[in-house]
Amino acid sequence: MPFDIYDFSTLTEAIDLSLRASMPAFWAVVIEFSIIGVVFLAAYALLGLGLVYAERKVCALMQNRLGPNRVGPFGLFQTVADIIKLLFKELIQIKQADKLLFNLAPFIVILGSLLAFGAIPFAKGLHAVDLNIGVFYVMAVSSIGVVGILLAGWSSNSKYSLLGAMRIGAQIVSYELSVGMALVTMVVFAGTLQLSEIVELQREGWFIVRGHIPAVIAFIVLLIAGTAETNRGPFDLAEAESELTAGFHTEYSGMKFAFFFLAEFMNMFVVAAIATTLFWGGWMPLHFGKWEAFNHIMDFIPPIVWFFGKMAVIIYLIMLFKWTFPRLRIDQLLTLEWKYLLPINLFNILLMAFIVLMGWHW
Amino acid sequence: MLITFNNKLKIIMSLTSYLGEIFGGVKSLLTGMRVTTSYFIRPSTIVTQKYPENRKTLKMYEGFKGEVVLVHNEKNEHKCTGCGICEINCPNGTIEIIAKQIVTEDGKKKKVIDKHIYRLGMCSFCGLCVKTCPSKALAFGSEFEHAVFDRSKLTKTLNNDGSTLMKGVEE
Questions:
Q1: Measured between alpha carbons, how far apart are the two ends of chain B, in Å?
Q2: Looking at residue A1, what is its pLDDT?
């Protein structure tokens, strides 16, 4: 395949070999771990900044505004300036708060999204940990975040924070189900939990095209439930600024507040990445069955561009939801999940299982 | 268990209303998304402007309440008779009219304005003075860059130097 020219594993293997040649195996592994850690932390922060900027621009355009345009060309450095401001701000200690939990909560939230971020296949060979239970792992670690949010709400000792945290508890417990079901639908179709293998299976066609109707339904459900999971509008009643000032992070300031903010955006990134990987073929280029010339041209676009391009579309969709729809009430939120999404999802899994049993999927 | 025809009908009815709700909801959501997307893909719909950059071309819309002005025509004439209605009506004491006595050509004594003092810093732009002026001498100007380094500069004399009353206003 021509697009194997962009295989990152040649680069990583070369680094590995040169490290092992010059030092004992143990230190080579330690250095490799630190390199990966630094790269991921940097990518995490940079993507977070980029997403905040993108959100502000998208929101502005939808509201007929210009958006940030003062710092740098097109306001590109606005979020950098914001983060510098947040770094210099005082971290206010709440007297009545539970000190340990209050300080721990932002780190748990950011840990959850960072762990999920590590398992995403960005391109061929550009994959930190290729677990054979990748989908399950991402599901599991992305749920850690809610513990941090609940802790933040509880330890702040403020009624707004507690209300926000309680709401988010109910919300995530409900919507976790839908996200899981939608992913299970695709796992049934793919027959594997390994993310790299799922991408490889889509070489001949993306799952959203080949998966018949159940894949389309699962994609829509995943988008809705994923938006709810990440506490973004129209499901942002955990922070509901008009009712609860800022919800669970009311009492936080400075960098700790920024951690919550960043984690929210990176959770959105993870949801978009998972949706891309499972439905839109991950880093696979766009191919049409018989158009050899077209397919060949598409192969020359690097996989990482494909991955981020597809993700940008999904992130745009999630942002579109936020800036178009009004916030749901808590009862409407739970009705949507338990009366609509869950029955549809269960039926969808049955349908997918039936298709797979009949052997219509390949 | 026996399902009567009536019960069957009920089940079908509830199922259709359930599905109808879903599709109706999706349709209304798509309508909203179409509107926001149409704004997103057309930057020409942006209504906000970059202010200091467009200072040269910026034109305020009609009816903008920037400041109160006394309208003068090209012969340096205004319509203020010095009746003091604006001064009485002003809720903030923004306006002060200082009158003077002059002798007209035919030897009569007459009261005209000497100074129409307007304190911009105290004005709440309610528009009562403009609305109640019997001779329509006052109007709202569109100037809005009022920042000054000294508060005393906000006290303005609205009538120009040497301006006179327009002929035919008092009759």
A1: 99
A2: 46
B137-170 residue pLDDT tens: 888 888 888 889 998 888 888 888 877 787 777 6
- CB-based contact, A62 to chain B, within 8 Å: yes
B67-165 is a CATH 3.30.70.3270 domain: yes
Residues of B in contact with A340 (CB under 8 A): 22
Distance (Å, whole) CA A326 – CA A355: 37
Which of B144, A169, A223, A76 lies closest to A161, judged by CA?
Answer: A169
- Between CA A104 and CA A92 the distance in angstroms is 14
Spatial CA neighbour of A27 closest among A16, A14, A40: A16
- Segment B76-103 shows an average pLDDT of 87
Mean pLDDT of chain A: 84
Amino acid occupying residue A162: L
Where do the structural domains in chain A lie, given as residue ranges? 94-357
CA quadruple A127, A133, A134, A137: dihedral sign: negative
First and final C-alpha spacing in chain A: 21
Distance CA B49, CA B36 (A): 20
Query: What value does the mean pLDDT take over residues B50-63?
Result: 84
Q: Report yes or no on whether pTM surpasses 0.95.
A: no
> Which residue of B22, B29, B40 to mutate against A (max A Cβ within 10 Å)?
B40
- Residue type at B56? K
Instruction: Determine the Cα–Cα distance for residues A74 and A66; give it in Å rounded to an integer.
Output: 9
Structure tokens at A189: 């179709």
Give the angle A285-A287-A293 at the CA atoms, nearest 5°: 105
